[in-house]
Amino acid sequence: MFRMRVSDSGHRLSFEEREEIEELLARGDTPAQIARALGRHRSTICREIKRNLRPKGRTSSGKLKLRPYAARIAQVKAEANARRPKATKLSQHRVLAKTVQAWIGGDERMSPQQVANRLPVVFPDDESMRISHETIYQELYVQGRGHLRADLHKALRTGRARRAPRRAAKRPRVPGELLIANRPKDVDGRTVPGHWEGDLIIGKDGSSAIGTLVERATRFTILLHLPHRHDAESVADAIAHEIARLPEHLARSLTWDQGSELVGSHQRVTDETGLSVWFCDPASPWQRGTNENTNGLLRQYFPKGTDLSVHTRADLDNVADGLNARPRKTLGWRTPAEALAEVL
Questions:
Q1: Where does residue 266 rank: exposed (0-12), middle (13-18), buried (19+ CB within 10 A)?
Q2: Is the pTM here over 0.90, yes or no?
Q3: Which helix (H) or strand (E) holds 298?
Q4: Residues forming beta bridges with residue 179, ordered by sequence position
Q5: Lower CB count within 10 Å: N or C terminus of the chain?
């Protein structure tokens, strides 16, 4: 029985352990038996053996032959891999680096993902001509790290020289009891007026917005004027101003998405207007289908990519009047204004 030896690092295999692996393999022990003898996890031993079995040609049937595990060679490879800083793959493989550079910077303007997936097609028998798209991005974004031209990032669709941050801003949390699943079922039927759907349409660079409120039963539309800001307080102010002009029986509920412009002020809206506020599930615009369709109509008047802050209160009223005077098939070809007048 071999005496267990533990490496100096506590988690890396020592040279003495590798020597014992070599002897035990030669004796015919399985990786599980070797792991028990060394006091290591079986996966550690399996990985160590697999990464150090070197090719030794092929059999007559084409099957790959492997040389036996060698402790000294395994130790040299482990020490080389542990050195820092490590040389990058492209800095060590000139042909691969030139190919990646030519495909990204050439007329095809391939993306790193296209390059990574094209290499096995063009070089099916050369395993050295392999690289992940993530490794290519790291070579592009870290100047001086790899073997690619410093300006090659300009050939990417984004043209960025660094990775865009992915940390999303923290958003107010929607209370679970206010999710749409808990909304009263009579809202779904569209038989009782006074239930609204709301949203914002956003202007150029996200710096301007117009709020939209659509009544579910009559499709009557109200536009919220937000000339300066569209934060939670501004949106709450605009909603309260418009809802206050309606009869009480037309202010029953409001369904909104999970945008921070209302999540942070829903209680204030309820207190000031009497509307019970409900929030859709994330990424579920169909839960506000009437509002989404209306926003699509509004883009005829307020195209995407334009500055919405230039429109006055009178401009918004004129657009809303136009929508509310448009006959709707779902209303039996009545207009939303006529449907609302019947309710009033």
A1: buried
A2: no
A3: helix 289-298
A4: 279
A5: N
Whether pLDDT at 108 is above 70: yes
Domain chopping of the chain, boundaries:
15-82, 89-155, 176-343
Cβ-contact 2, 37 below 8 angstroms: yes
CATH class of 15-82: mainly alpha
Question: Considering only CA atoms, which of 197, 223, 184 is closest in space to residue 286?
Answer: 197
The C-alpha R_g of the chain, in whole angstroms, comes to: 33
For 222, the 3-state DSSP assignment is strand
* % the chain with pLDDT above 90: 58
- CATH classification of 176-343 is 3.40.50.720, yes or no? no
The span from the CA of 292 to the CA of 221, in Å, is: 12
Separation of alpha carbons 223 and 295, rounded Å: 10
**Helix/strand number for the chain, H first, E second:** 14, 7
CB atoms within 10 A of CB 1: 4
Instruction: Write the pLDDT tens digit of every residue in 157-184.
Output: 665 655 665 555 555 578 889 999 999 9
